[in-house]
């Protein structure tokens, strides 16, 4: 993925109060490393609501499980991500001020309150619902599931077993019928030269990870 799309993605995460990308990437990497174990930052083994949202309010437990973040040295070296780490709290404040200037309090309600709550819960459903309900196509050794209705809400992120099988893949909806709006955006960015080195799983990799073989 080229730098511009990821920079835009990082800014969008900051604007919905989902934290800065260094922290977010660290947690995500630990989740893949210790998925559905006692070291998983948001394991569904501790209950649906823990994996959905309660883990975010239990930072001491996360630190006890995986220690201080030490898996994001690649991002910590980059000035842009350090800038977001130091300023991310102010990005939505600036957006709220702009919305209020354009439309007053109703714009704040819909542009900040409703939008943020909606995005939060869709994001959290990937961590919770996609480790509880759905089906598995790949031998990932964890509880990750492909969940069609989360995929519809999250623009493709619900094909979570696919993601755990091939975490490097820019495409989550690997089958033609698996709706993945995010992948369509990546393809568009690739077509106009803004996304490069886009990675997809090979047929050999799929065969190795498949639960059943022909």
Automatic annotation (TrEMBL):
Subcellular location: Membrane
Fatty acid desaturase domain boundaries: 23-187
Membrane topology term: Multi-pass membrane protein
Molecular function terms, GO-annotated: oxidoreductase activity, acting on paired donors, with oxidation of a pair of donors resulting in the reduction of molecular oxygen to two molecules of water
GO biological process entries: very long-chain fatty acid biosynthetic process
Keywords, ordered alphabetically: Fatty acid biosynthesis, Fatty acid metabolism, Iron, Lipid biosynthesis, Lipid metabolism, Membrane, Oxidoreductase, Transmembrane, Transmembrane helix
Primary residence: membrane
Transmembrane segments: 89-110
Functional pathway: Lipid metabolism; polyunsaturated fatty acid biosynthesis
One GO cellular component, as annotated: endoplasmic reticulum membrane
Homology family: Belongs to the fatty acid desaturase type 1 family.
Record protein name field: Fatty acid desaturase domain-containing protein
Lineage: Eukaryota, Viridiplantae, Streptophyta, Embryophyta, Tracheophyta
């Amino acid at each position: 993925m080229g730098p511009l799309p990821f920079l835009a993605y990082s800014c969008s995460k900051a604007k919905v109060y989902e934290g800065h990308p260094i922290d977010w990437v660290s947690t995500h990497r630990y989740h893949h490393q210790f998925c559905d174990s006692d070291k998983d930052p948001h394991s569904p083994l501790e209950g649906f609501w823990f994996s959905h949202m309660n883990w975010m309010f239990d930072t001491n437990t996360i630190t006890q499980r995986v220690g201080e973040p030490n898996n994001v040295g690649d991002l910590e070296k980059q000035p842009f991500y350090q800038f977001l780490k130091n300023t991310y709290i102010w990005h939505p404040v600036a957006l709220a001020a702009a919305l209020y200037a354009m439309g007053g309090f109703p714009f704040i309600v819909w542009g900040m309150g409703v939008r943020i709550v909606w995005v939060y819960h869709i994001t959290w459903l990937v961590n919770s619902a996609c480790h509880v309900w759905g089906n598995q196509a790949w031998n990932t050794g964890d509880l990750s599931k492909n969940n069609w209705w989360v995929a519809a809400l999250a623009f493709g992120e619900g094909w979570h077993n696919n993601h755990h099988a091939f975490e490097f893949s820019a495409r989550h909806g690997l089958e033609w019928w698996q709706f993945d709006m995010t992948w369509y955006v990546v393809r568009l960015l690739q077509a106009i030269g803004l996304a490069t080195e886009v990675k997809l799983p090979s047929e050999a990799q799929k065969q190795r990870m498949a639960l059943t073989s022909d």
